[in-house]
Amino acid sequence: MNRIDFISATLPARKRIALVAHDHCKGRLLEWAERQKTRLERHELLATGTTGLLLGQRLGLPVECMISGPLGGDQQIGARIAERRIDMLVFFWDPFEPQPHDPDVKALLRVAAVWNIPLAANESSADYLLSSPMLDQAHSLSIPDYGNYLAARRPADQ
């Protein structure tokens, strides 16, 4: 397997924040988001289906909603991360409850790690992310150099 090279990219000052929660964690995410409303309202919010509808109603803020996680919403969020259209992921997941879409959940967590975006998996880590001075600043991070990766895989005769 070829080694992946990395390049520098910049996260904007106004972040695109994806908010995701398993069913048993939605209440905690809603309470957390309400406490963090003044920070969240400065950014663009995206969420999977039901979570997004509930957040929009509770916060009175615009939330772009994907479809429900088990129906492909987790994959939609993951695709946007890979396309560099999401800058941060807050995912309150339930480690004690088996999920029928567990492979999608693992794929979402993996793609967030691959693309080196800030990821909070619980309330404490989400508080740390949102209280960081970097939240409202543009800042650099390393991401995979996908162009070089593809170039290394092209057949020599092309």
From TrEMBL:
Catalytically driven reaction(s): dihydroxyacetone phosphate = methylglyoxal + phosphate
GO-annotated cellular components: cytosol
Positions contributing to substrate binding: 22, 26, 48-51, 68-69, 101
Keyword terms: Lyase
Active-site residue numbers: 74 (proton donor/acceptor)
EC number of the protein: 4.2.3.3
Main enzyme class: lyase
One annotated GO molecular function: methylglyoxal synthase activity
Keyword Lyase: yes
Entry keyword Signal: no
InterPro entries for the chain: Methylgl_synth, Methylglyoxal_synth_AS, MGS-like_dom, MGS-like_dom_sf
HAMAP family, alphabetized: Methylglyoxal_synth
Protein family (similarity comment): Belongs to the methylglyoxal synthase family.
Name recorded for this polypeptide: Methylglyoxal synthase
Gene: mgsA
